[in-house]
Hints:
This protein is α/β, with parallel strands linked by helices.
Amino acid sequence: MKKLVVITGASSGIGKELAKTFSKEGHPVLLLARRKHLMEELNLENCICKSVDVTKKEEVEKAILEAEEKYGKTDLLINCAGIMLLGKPDTQDYEEWASMVDTNVKGILTGTNIVLPNMIKENNGTIINISSIAGRKTFNNHSVYCGTKFAVHAITESMRKEVAGSNVRIIVIAPGVVETPLLSHTTDEKIKEDYNQWKKTIESGLDVSKIADCVKFAYYMPQDVCVREIVIAKTKQED
């Protein structure tokens, strides 16, 4: 059996596709998200599904320890949980800002804090953070969302540098528009309508399978090769 892969945000979108991809590749998988029933519906082999809040370290740690007891230490952690609540900075509810900061930033820290020490001890392991092109440039109505994704990029690159001597890889994947339910989290209907109209100009977003291909490419490189960052978008997406 191949090594354990842990995936957060595994109930939908990119995370769900990654769950199917790595299970098909023969890896045991630990799937973490709030909606356990959606992960269980995938009916994957050698799979543990846990309903957790990724901002709660004790919940994430309990799930990871259970999976590691059964399948061995985590070799790949994919931090994919995230929310996008677009809004205007002068009218958006503060709680929406707080939710994005908690999920998008703290959500990559809990699992990392749990698995990284052993990876350093073993001189092996990979952590992949799914960020966004909004972590490299700003967009209207994205101010706090961009801030959280800029944080993901900064944390990833800084940690990568600090653990490089231990042969541990920390990688960021930055997609442009992807066909996922992410936009549905936004509560401003006018912003959603404008976003969807703009998306038509690039003839839809990327299929989630393309993001999974990028993750596989980076992970399956030899351990002494770190693909530090992948930025991927539809060719017609100019920004």
